[in-house]
Each structure stands twice: as structure tokens, then as C-alpha cells.
Amino acid sequence: MSTVLEFKNVSKHYDVSRNISELLTGIKPKVRAVDNVSFKINQGESVGIVGESGCGKTTLAKLILNLLEPTSGEILFESKNINKINTVDEIHNFKKNLQFVFQNPYDSLNPRFTIKDILLEPLKSLKYRETDFDNLISNVMDLVKLKNKEEYLYKYPHELSGGQLQRIVLARALIISPKFVVADEPVSMLDVSVRAGILNAFNQAKKSMNFTAIYISHDLALVKYVCERTIVMYLGSVVEDGPTKEVISNPLHPYTKALVEAVPVPHVDQSHEPLPIIGNIPDATKFYEGCKFSDRCPNPSHDCKHGNIKMGLIEAKPGHWVDKCCINCK
Ligand SMILES: Nc1ncnc2c1ncn2[C@@H]1O[C@H](COP(=O)(O)OP(=O)(O)O)[C@@H](O)[C@H]1O
Ligand SMILES: [Mg+2]
What is the model's pTM? Predict the structure, then answer.
């Protein structure tokens, strides 16, 4: 299978304003939002990225979409470094192939445009033939399961519900048949009752268009529904990566175990173990010599506690990778 996207030791650090630690140590604080991340994504894969709020998921999405430049490392899309594309053709190709769905549909759409104008925008900017416009709009409305299409086209975003708007956001991303779609928490702002509909539309579109997908969520239960592979992030680093079924049924990292425990169970009488991690959400500006999870690990090994093991993934089982420090903490 061919690799579509590759992260090679990618970091994105944000400078943050002066704080007490800078005054004491003289070192300018940084948030290591994405910290030395490497992975490859193959054509047609759907990959979930999970982790708690602040672990760097949105920064990672923005790096993929070239909305942010990495502090270091390389991001290759179809073997080309996306930060070095500059010819008109390359930019056109990049926009045509990579689309996104962001978290908040209310923020993603121009309130002054009708739904039709919103859907026409990508077609016009990528210079599609005008004679194809109506057909493409009609097809994509079917794809995202918006019935009575004509009814929507001349409405404005404020006249639609959150669920309908997110279908329009999805339609706008899919209308140009992209090869790759990045969806960042696309249902987290929506009522639980409409989430399943959007996820089904996403899954069915993926099946019929066969795009490669990155689906970002803090909720492992949603990722399980959409993705065959899952990457778990903690404080800007990848700590586990493997087939979703395997990651959920046999999590190897204590943090992944905690995420699995946090998934609600359908029966009230089924008991829940308390989360097996300790401590609070960590300080994103803290620098760790060794394992970033050592502060919260329920069973740290001697080397883990003393920061002797640098972070990095090892293949514990075929296709199932986990941070090499945490596999020893049992
Ligand atoms: N523009 C920014 N400037 C400084 N810090 C930022 C900026 N954007 C995000 N961060 C910080 O980077 C970390 C990762 O944020 P983000 O990528 O939004 O995580 P997530 O999407 O997983 O919640 C957080 O600690 C966040 O506060
Ligand atoms: Mg986010």
C-alpha cells in the first residue's frame, strides 16, 4: 500500500508569554504542542487520533493542512514536503487533494453566504466548469444525506441546525472529491442525537469515495466507530499506534487503558473501574528528560521514575506500537 502522508520527526512549539519560571531559570517557556512525532498513513486508511484536550490534536491537524509551519521536521504529502510547495500547480493540487472539517460548524461557514454560495466556493476557486456545478451540488447533498435539497440551497447558515450545518461543512469538503480528509472533532459541538447521523454520512462517503481520512477526537468510542487504526497522543507525543480493535481490546499504554476505561458502558449495572492514572492534567510547558507520563503512571518502573528512558515507539506486536518506557511499567 502506498504512503500518502508522512510525518518525519515533526515538532511544533509555541512560545508563551513570560512567566515566573522564565524569571527564575532564564529559559523562555514553550508549549511543545507536537513533539517529535513520526508516522506514515497509507492510501485509503482511516486513522483516529485520540487524546485528552490540549494534547496537540488540533495543532497536528493544522500542520497537515499547512495552516501552521512546523518548528522542525518534515511533513510529506504524496512524497512532497508540504512546506516547500510554491508553484501555482502545486498549491492547486494540494487544495484539491486535502480537505478538512473543523469542530465548530457555526464558525466554519460564512454567515453572509447562502448554502449554495458556500458549496460553489471550492468549485469556483479550483476552476471547475460552470456547467458541472448543479450536478456536483446535487450529488454531494445526496452523499451527506440532506433531503429536500432545493429547500437548503437558498438558506443562510443561521437558518439551519448544528447537525444540518455540519453536513454542509462535510459537503463543502467532499464536493471536489478530495483524496484526503482531516476531520477535527466534527461532532463534539453537536447534540448526541444527531452525532450518529453525521458519522454514518462520513463513513458512507468514505466507502463510496475511498478517501484517506484522519478523524480526530477526544472520545475513543467515536474513533472506534469510524477508524480501523488509532494513534494515541499524550502531551504532544504519540504513545500508542495500532489497529483500533487491538488498541481497545488490548491497550498497552497505561494512558490508553485509562481512555478505554473512560468509554461509557451501555448497562448501568456494569461496574466501572476507576481511571488507572493519577495526578492532574500536566503542565504543557514542562520539559521532560524521559517519559512524559512518569508523573501520572500508576506503576512506574525504576527507570521511568528516574527519567532514564527517552520516549519512542517500539513494535510490541505486529502493527501495534507503544512507547518503550511505558511497556515496562506494569
Ligand atoms: N497559538 C497558540 N499559542 C500558544 N499555545 C497554543 C496555541 N495553540 C495551542 N496552544 C497550546 O498547545 C497545546 C495543544 O493545543 P491543541 O493542539 O489545541 O490541542 P487539542 O486539540 O488536543 O486540544 C495546548 O497546551 C494549547 O494550550
Ligand atoms: Mg482540538
Answer: 0.92
